[in-house]
Amino acid sequence: MAVLRRVATESTILVSNRTTGMKNPTKSLPWLCAAALLLVASSRIGAQEPLPQQFGKWAVGSCPGWLGKLLAPATPVARESNLQSAGSEHYCNGNLGVTARYYEFADPTGAYEFYTSELKVGMNATTIGGASAVDAERLLTLIGNYVIEILPARNISDVDLLLLLKPIKAKAMETPLPPVRGYMPGEGMVQGTQRYAMGPAAFQAALDSLGQSKSAVLTDEIGFKAGTEAMLASYAARGGKTQTLLLLDYPTPQLAEQRLHHIQAMISANPALADVTVERKTSLLSLVLSPASPQAAAKLREEIQYQMQVTWSEPSQTLTDPPWVVVLKNIFVGTLAFCGVAIVMGIAFGGVRVVTKKFFPGKVFDRPEDIEVLQLGLSGKRIDPRDFY
């Protein structure tokens, strides 16, 4: 940021000197625009700086160990990972000094690809949690779409390190990392050999770092343009040997089957890959590069943490029973309502009948000509129905 501000200031001074000697001030407009753009760019970069100026007893300053300002790496892996910006700060705490570098990416997937490409054999997990690794020289940690590098890591404690990373965690993206990283077996893995690739640049860099350059002929057959994700790591085998496991995660099982045939044809056409084996399990292809033995390769495949899941999208509903108190309440309310309706209907029916018989006797109800009485004929007297009313 200081470099950009200095350049912008010098450009402004140059503009003022030139405009002084110019007869036509309008010719200085392009220089003024350029200076304004540099000032705007420098102010934006300063506003987006994720590293704090002070944390705990540490503050930005000049002390032993300063490594200079970081320039954004222009490597093929950085471009493929969608690197957005990079920067660094040097912090001092008495005579101790550490340099913190940050790399900002468009998303956590690109950050994870760059993070694994920076790992070295022998780096171990740290006590700060998350995806992080440390050795005698530096510490690497992945925070969302940021990769943070601390040099040297031995000069700063975990407590101070968490204070340094706190503002970065507050602004980092929280989307999940690629699932293929969780499929790798943990037993026997050589720490620092984990490599993730979402494109050919990171894939070839991973093969070179793991000593598997002979497998680079498979790059075009994998099909990264279709959304394929690759994960590699080296594993220790008996006899001091190592073998590399390569997992290829495809969007669909059909695409995985198609690429399986392409990869098998390429393996058959290259004698240097005669010992490489490949298998498919739904959408996942597994290759064991430079296997220690067929038995060791088969055992390594058995430890892959991948399970097939079949889902069926259909409408569903969840039935829940109400509490028994609500059930009893509904029963009593329903019974009382039924009884009330019965009483009202009974009174209404009886009242209409009584009123009708009073004002229209023998006209509507109980008309003698419509009443019949069953008789056994035990006596000669015929019963008159009117005698009943």
Could you give a quick summary of the protein structure above?
The chain has 389 residues and is an alpha+beta fold. The chain has 10 helices and 12 strands.
Describe what you observe in this structure.
A hairpin with a 5-residue loop joins strand 9 (229-236) and strand 10 (242-249). Helix 1 (2-21) packs antiparallel against helix 2 (29-47). The radius of gyration is 42 Å and the shape is elongated. The protein folds into three domains: 1-20 and 27-47; 48-171; 179-302, no CATH class. With 389 residues, the chain is α+β, with helices and mostly antiparallel strands. The strands form two sheets. Strands 1-2-3-4-7-6-5 form a seven-stranded antiparallel beta sheet. Strands 8-9-10-12-11 form a five-stranded antiparallel beta sheet, sandwiched between helices. 37% of the residues lie in helices and 18% in strands. The protein is built from ten helices and twelve strands.
List the helices and strands and how they pair.
Blueprint: H1 2-21, H2 29-47, E1 54-55, E2 58-60, H3 76-80, E3 83-93, E4 96-105, H4 108-117, E5 132-134, E6 139-143, E7 146-151, H5 158-171, E8 195-197, H6 200-209, H7 219-222, E9 229-236, E10 242-249, H8 253-269, E11 277-281, E12 284-289, H9 294-302, H10 324-359
Antiparallel strand pairs: 1-2, 2-3, 3-4, 4-7, 5-6, 6-7, 8-9, 9-10, 10-12, 11-12
